[in-house]
Amino acid sequence: MATRNSGDVVGGDTETTAGTSPGGAVSKRPARDRIFETARELFYQHGIRAVGVETIASEAEATKMTLYRNFPSKDELVAEVLREQEREYWAWWEEVTACCCTDPRAQLEAIFDAFETKACDADIHGCPLSNAAIELHEENHPAQVVSVNYKKELHRRLVELARGAGATDDDLADALMLLMEGAYISRVTLGKGGPVRAVSRSARALIRMHLDGC
User: What is the pLDDT of residues 29-56, one digit of tens each?
Assistant: First the structure.
């Protein structure tokens, strides 16, 4: 557990931690950034319900007052963390698909190739947005709204690519969505040496079956 740093300056949104950079200059990191990054790590490692604001503030070397100055509530902090994770996922998606020009089939294959590499390489505890949807059952919880909207957009994008590749219905997109969701769980329960290492091959088999009839 982290302790308060004697170099902290408490002043609402401007609370910072003083430190020394490699060049010897004093650097300061905003308390909001510390709180956000700490909350993100703790939520993913331990679960949203298991982590309280006291723990977040302590680990971030901040105070509860400072946390609430920057985030109106824990629920809003969770939602903001998930929004950032969603933004990062779509940035990854765009980077992966950009190398395939405008070929939807190649883009689908590239997504699952990259997804397999990402899932096998990372110290993963599943999809954070899926985890949040499972943990948070309140329909109007701000984080639940983020999670559900993200999954809807993921399915919409898969449908768009599958249709663009020649699918006549949504069956291919549905199958690929189920494959991706199942791969996350398999990675958590059976590790990177389990079925997740076949996700790319499985996706290509589904694509061939639905588009080529074989």
Answer: 899 999 999 999 999 999 999 999 999 9
Q: Are the C-beta atoms of residues 168 and 95 closer than 8 Å to each other?
A: no
According to DSSP, residue 18 is labeled E
Q: Which DSSP category does 26 fall into? A: E
Q: Are residues 123 and 173 in the same domain?
A: yes
CATH number of 178's domain: 1.10.357.10
Residue range of the domain that includes 105:
75-212
**Torsion sign, CA atoms 15, 20, 21, 24:** positive
DSSP state of 196: G
Q: Do 43 and 83 belong together in one domain?
A: no
Interval 50-105: pLDDT, tens: 999 999 999 999 999 999 999 999 999 999 999 999 999 999 999 999 987 789 99
